[in-house]
């Protein structure tokens, strides 16, 4: 792995949590959130012990207005985090590089119907664009970090069930164009462990486990069971969002992400140390939830906050 990955990750010793709340968690929210409120949210996440944080997206503000302040937010990010940002094209890369972004996430899918709605490209077109973006990024930053998302890995909201082989093909293409890590997305939160088992086996026959992460939305409450399944097969990196915020504006029926609180609770109680303070984390997202006018709903967050009373 390239520089930028924490030592423990290189050694494969820990289960990593990639916090996507400031990006995935907020991108779908209709009420504009001030940049300072986003920064406060990120400061709280750091204080709770999270390190890898997907902070924002350099996508078109016409498509995702909520994250239109990426260039304003980035230079103000607190020190101590390993921050990444979504980049959809060359224009996004230029904007990201101007801000000093060293970790980018490219995002495609296993379904053309979804990529067409999400980024206005077919999967093949997106891979061409991302190949050029990855190569320009490597030229600018040889030691930078690239993640590649494969969304709709189990089902597409527009085209239905997805063949696992197709997910492996797209993931392999992303590896060929130079991504360091694949994040496999259950974008609309439909998967159950049996499907995760099948896909993980196929993926691991081509791609080493340390280059795989899962990104489960928890629309139907199956995300933790899916994490357990993937862990049993050797996957050690999981995306989650504080308070279970999240959803994709271009994926009909996408619910919130797996809540970081639920993931931390599950890991710690299973004897896997996360270095994340669950109590602190449960309080971390309260201000952002208040600005969204929403009560806490992640199970472990509610349980923690209730036990404080
Ligand atoms: P397009 O309309 O085909 O592109 O959008 P375009 O090149 O015609 O550009 C349209 C306008 O946007 C132009 O401005 C461009 O300059 C501007 P105008 O000339 O009209 O004034 N533009 C940009 N501005 C700033 N930054 C940029 C940029 N690019 C173009 N980077 C595009 C194509 C890819 C840009 C658009 O579709 C887009 O931004 N899509 C992003 C959608 C998105 O962010 N979706 C959510 C993230 S994915 C997700 O949530 C799934 C994930 O969580 C995993 C999972 O759950 O499975 C990752
Ligand atoms: Mg997502």
Blueprint of the fold:
Layout: H1 7-11, E1 16-19, H2 21-27, H3 35-47, E2 52-57, H4 70-73, E3 82-86, H5 90-99, E4 103-109, H6 112-119, H7 123-140, E5 145-151, E6 155-156, E7 160-161, H8 164-176, E8 181-186, H9 193-204, E9 212-216, H10 223-232, E10 237-240, H11 260-269, H12 278-284, H13 286-292, H14 299-308
Parallel strand pairs: 1-2, 1-10, 2-3, 3-4, 4-5, 5-8, 8-9, 9-10
Antiparallel strand pairs: 6-7
Bound molecules: 3-hydroxy-3-methylglutaryl-coenzyme A (HMG) and magnesium ion (MG).
Residues 24, 185, 187, 215, 217, 246, 248 line the site of magnesium ion.
Output the keywords:
single chain; 309 residues; alpha/beta; TIM Barrel; eight-stranded parallel barrel; binds 3-hydroxy-3-methylglutaryl-coenzyme A
Structural class: alpha/beta
Q: How many domain units? A: 1
Counting DSSP E segments of at least 2 residues, the number of strands comes to 10
The fraction of residues in strands falls at: 15-25%
Low-confidence stretches: 1-13
CATH superfamily: Aldolase class I
Task: Tell me what you see in this structure.
The chain has one domain: TIM Barrel. Strand 9, helix 10 and strand 10 form a beta-alpha-beta unit. It is built from 14 helices and 10 strands. Helix 3 runs antiparallel to helix 12, helix 9 packs parallel to helix 10 and helix 12 packs across helix 14. By secondary structure, it is an alpha/beta fold. Helix content is 43%, strand content 16%. The site of 3-hydroxy-3-methylglutaryl-coenzyme A has 28 residues, from helix 2, helix 5, helix 6 and strand 5.
